[in-house]
Amino acid sequence: MKRPDALTWFEIPCTQLSRAATFYERMTGLTLKRESFLNVPHAIFTTQGVGGALVEDPDNKPSPTGQRIFLNAAGELDAWLERVEAAGGKVLLPRTSIGPPGYIAIIQDTEGNHVGLHTPLAA
């Protein structure tokens, strides 16, 4: 039997979708796609692999605690970190080696979420 992927979708809560989307677009260099699902505004990360979105849903509040996701910086970790503060966020943990899996960093976005960034060692 084929094992399913451990993760297929993620959502990062926000209170101001436009502000949050601008932050992530400036940090990553990606363009997020604005959509609405069940009358809930989304800004979708248009990447390959696991998908996800910023979501402005009153039932899901931004928080520095709880689950932490790690976005794949795919060799762009240093560039992303250089743009965090100019985009309105904070670097909480700078580029840090985790051995063979690569490097991580932790940022705080404009909504107060703590989000991890990861890049493989080879990148």
How would you describe this protein?
The protein has 123 residues and is α/β, with parallel strands linked by helices. It has a single domain, classed as Roll (2,3-Dihydroxybiphenyl 1,2-Dioxygenase, domain 1), CATH 3.10.180. 16% of the residues lie in helices and 36% in strands. It contains 2 helices and 8 strands; from the N terminus they run E-H-E-E-E-E-H-E-E-E. It has helices at 17-28, 77-84, and strands at residues 9-13, 33-37, 40-45, 51-55, 70-72, 90-97, 103-108, 114-119. The chain has a 4-stranded mixed beta sheet with strand order 1-4-3-2. Strands 5-8-7-6 form a 4-stranded mixed beta sheet, covered by helices on one side. Helix 1 (17-28) packs across helix 2 (77-84). The protein is globular, with a radius of gyration of 14 Å. It starts with 8 loop residues before the first strand and ends with a strand. The mean pLDDT is 92.
Strand order of the largest sheet: 1-4-3-2
> Which term fits the overall shape?
globular
Strand fraction band? 35-45%
Cα-atom radius of gyration: 14 Å
The biggest sheet, with number of strands, parallel, antiparallel or mixed sense and barrel status, is: 4 strands, mixed
CATH superfamily: 2,3-Dihydroxybiphenyl 1,2-Dioxygenase, domain 1
* Total count of helical runs of at least 4 residues: 2
Task: Please describe the structure with a list of short key phrases separated by commas or semicolons.
123 residues; alpha/beta; 2,3-Dihydroxybiphenyl 1,2-Dioxygenase, domain 1; 4-stranded mixed β-sheet; 2 helices; 8 strands; 16% helix; 36% strand; globular
